[in-house]
Design a protein that fits this description.
The complex is a heterodimer. Chain A is α/β, with parallel strands linked by helices. Chain A has a single domain, classed as Rossmann fold. Helices cover 49% and strands 17% of the residues of chain A. Chain A has eight helices and six strands; from the N terminus they run αβαβαβααβαβαβα. Chain A has a six-stranded parallel β-sheet with strand order 2-1-3-4-6-5, with helices on both faces. In chain A, helix 1 packs across helix 2 and helix 3 runs parallel beside helix 5. Chain A is globular, with a radius of gyration of 14 Å. The mean pLDDT of chain A is 95. Chain B has eight helices and eight strands, in the order αβαβαβααβββαβαβα. Chain B is α/β, with parallel strands linked by helices. Helix content of chain B is 39%, strand content 17%. In chain B, strands 2-1-3-4-8-7 form a six-stranded parallel β-sheet, with helices on both faces. Chain B has a single domain, classed as Thiamin diphosphate (ThDP)-binding fold, Pyr/PP domains (Rossmann fold, 3-Layer(aba) Sandwich), CATH 3.40.50. Chain B starts with a helix and ends in an 18-residue tail after the last helix. Classes of the chains: A alpha/beta, B alpha/beta. Chains A and B meet through strand 2, helix 3 and helix 5 of A and helix 3, helix 5 and helix 8 of B.
Chain lengths: 166, 205
């Protein structure tokens, strides 16, 4: 991810009211995670496993924060039980920013299956999501996805494809 | 000692502390001892410590107490590393360690073997770590943690067995709304969004 893309995401999150972000990094998310760590307006919690981050974000919501979780799609798949039991069941919103590996243009064979499963699993657990691939889509998609998360009291997701990440 | 005896011993000390309970009988025991809108009963095995961490970070001036279990924490050992690094001074993480998956008919957990969760907590960097084997030890440690302004991890080694309490009427959606409304009121914050009726807007010409 280019630094200006990371900066745009951080600014968009703040504009949307997000003040608490849990992250689990990856090469494509590195600049975003580092930028979140440096931002004074956002409480940043680097976690050791993605479903842990879902719990941390849900707890922060109960305490009045507006949380988001940054992770790759492998981590999203790992988090499905946490999303179902901790967020969807009681009705707790968390904005999910999911880096999408294994999509069109992927050169790493190991990522293809995870890539192919990401959208069907989002649909299966009824999480509304938007795919973002262009810089100019970032701000409005984050704003609108956060709006829906808060009004529906449910997680929403933004799937960031490789063009957006690079 | 039994978990219910521990809970009964410390319940009178609770005022406006926020509590996150683990999946299992502990939720019913605690709800019976301290029915309060500041109790959040998690419907997930594993994320009790993480929910409590998020809550403690969001409200650093409120004491947050997690009633976790060995089976739950073993699913989420990494949360101890995250908690240690975040170091919320208002969090008391209590683990009732009965060395088995009691709610799942009692197969042994890893703590029935060689695993020591207090040692894991220390290894992750939590400084105030205690293991209690009697109700008196547990109560004394909890009282110290409640008065202190620092992160505590308390491992309570308990025998299996649930307290003789009625099943609490716990509905997750209801629990969430009651908890959130309690936080909104006690903290003077707005968490739940509301939609204005269009009828209140002037009609466009």
């Amino acid at each position: 991810m280019k630094r200006e893309v990371a900066a745009e995401i951080v600014e968009s999150l703040k504009e949307a009211g997000v003040d608490f972000v849990a992250t689990l990094t990856e090469a494509n998310l590195h600049d975003l995670v580092m930028a979140l760590g440096e931002d004074k307006a956002i409480h940043h919690v680097p976690v050791t496993r993605e479903e842990e981050g879902i719990g941390v974000c849900a707890g922060a919501y109960l305490g009045g924060k507006k949380p988001a979780m940054v992770m790759m799609n492998a981590g999203f798949l790992l988090s499905t039980n946490a999303l179902a039991t901790v967020c969807i069941h009681p009705g707790i919103p968390v904005l999910l920013l999911i880096g999408h590996s294994g999509g069109v243009g992927e050169e790493n064979a190991g990522h293809a299956t995870v890539g192919a499963l990401t959208e069907p699993v989002l649909q299966a657990i009824h999480i509304v999501y938007e795919k973002v691939g262009r810089f100019e889509e970032i701000r409005s998609t984050i704003r609108d996805s956060q709006m829906l998360a808060r009004s529906s009291r449910r997680p929403t997701a933004i799937v960031l494809n490789k063009q957006a990440l690079r | 000692m039994k978990r219910y005896e521990c809970l009964r011993a410390i319940a009178p000390q609770f005022g406006d502390e926020l509590v996150v309970t683990n999946l299992g009988a502990v939720r019913h025991e605690w709800q019976s001892l301290r029915p309060h809108h500041g109790n959040y009963h998690l419907q997930n095995l594993g994320l009790t410590s993480s929910m409590a961490l998020g809550l403690a970070l969001a409200l650093p001036h409120r004491k947050v107490v997690a009633f976790d279990g060995d089976g739950s924490l073993l699913l989420n050992l990494g949360s101890l590393a995250t908690i240690a690094n975040q170091h919320p001074k208002n969090l008391i993480h209590i683990v009732f360690d009965n060395e088995c998956y009691e709610s799942s008919r009692g197969a042994p957990t890893a703590t029935a073997g060689s695993a020591d969760l207090a040692a894991v907590a220390r290894g992750c960097g939590i400084v105030n770590v205690a293991t209690a084997k009697t109700v008196a030890e547990f109560t004394e440690t909890f009282t110290r943690a409640l008065k202190a302004s620092d992160l505590y991890f308390i491992l309570a080694k308990v025998e299996p067995g649930a307290g003789d309490v009625p099943a609490a009427a716990l509905d997750s959606q209801e629990n969430k709304y009651l908890f959130v409304r309690y936080i909104e009121k006690s903290e003077n914050v707005k968490i739940l969004t509301s939609t204005l009726s269009r009828a209140s807007e002037p009609a466009s010409k």
